């Protein structure tokens, strides 16, 4: 689990076009072994985003600050014995840089339970998996969390279908379906959330359609020619979309409308 740096181009398309795009892409990239064969294409991805009391990271992304970052803890299921991942994701102008460290669930629980608002997080490396190779990410994560007083803010979950290059880790295409934002209970224990509210795209007050898919084209330095062809063939229109911002925006709207927790739906794994 290391450092990656790449460009990411995002598009919002309907599911039927997403299936056609996946068929096109499969001629150039291989499907991920994690895609699965369930009723929804792809596999579950769940991220607990951290933010400050004044929503520092949210406001950076909402206002389109060129150099910005996010802090999140990513996991894929409810299995306590499987690890989670600390992620520091930065945007430097048009380049996306992501650092990732693998940590035990118990380590995450201790950090979330013992951190802000009571006292600072401490970069305890005893629960890191792969040890010293990722100490830098662990320490950066909690340094940024401390400097902003960040705490668990919101779950963002979806199903991700992945196509990837065999010899280039940065060249990949992902399709994210059923994106939802859900409440974080503050317990410190990562849980598969209820599938809460559909994201809204600020500032247009427009929810994502139920069959909307977020398509992302990811590459290092320069996109291959077939990506340019695909954009033309499928009439793809690039749109700035941040799933975290869209779900936080929706959460604010839902709280105003007093949507109750029992109106949320269970995430199907």
Morphology: globular
CATH class reads Alpha Beta
How do the SSEs run, as a string of H and E?
EHEEHEEEHHEEEEEEHHE
CATH architecture title: Alpha-Beta Barrel
Low-confidence stretches: 258-269
The CATH superfamily turns out to be VTC, catalytic tunnel domain
Structural class: alpha+beta
The spatial strand order of the largest sheet comes to: 1-6-5-4-3-7-8-12
Number of strands: 13
CATH-derived topology: mRNA Triphosphatase Cet1, Chain A
- Residues in helix, %: 10-25%
**In whole angstroms, how far apart are the ends?**
24 Å
- The number of domains: 1
Beta content comes to 25-35%
Overall pLDDT level: 87
| Radius of gyration, taken over Cα atoms and rounded to an integer in Å | 18 Å
Q: State the helix count.
A: 6
Largest sheet composition: 8 strands, antiparallel, barrel
What does this 3D model show about the protein?
A hairpin with a 7-residue loop joins strand 7 (151-164) and strand 8 (172-183). This protein has one domain (3-266): VTC, catalytic tunnel domain (mRNA Triphosphatase Cet1, Chain A), CATH 3.20.100. The chain is built from six helices and 13 strands. The protein has helices spanning 15-25, 56-62, 105-114, 135-148, 225-233, 243-257; strands at residues 3-14, 30-31, 43-51, 68-75, 84-92, 95-103, 151-164, 172-183, 194-195, 200-201, 206-207, 212-219, 265-266. Residues 258-269 have low confidence and may be disordered. It is globular and about 55 Å long. It has an eight-stranded antiparallel β-barrel with strand order 1-6-5-4-3-7-8-12, surrounded by five helices.
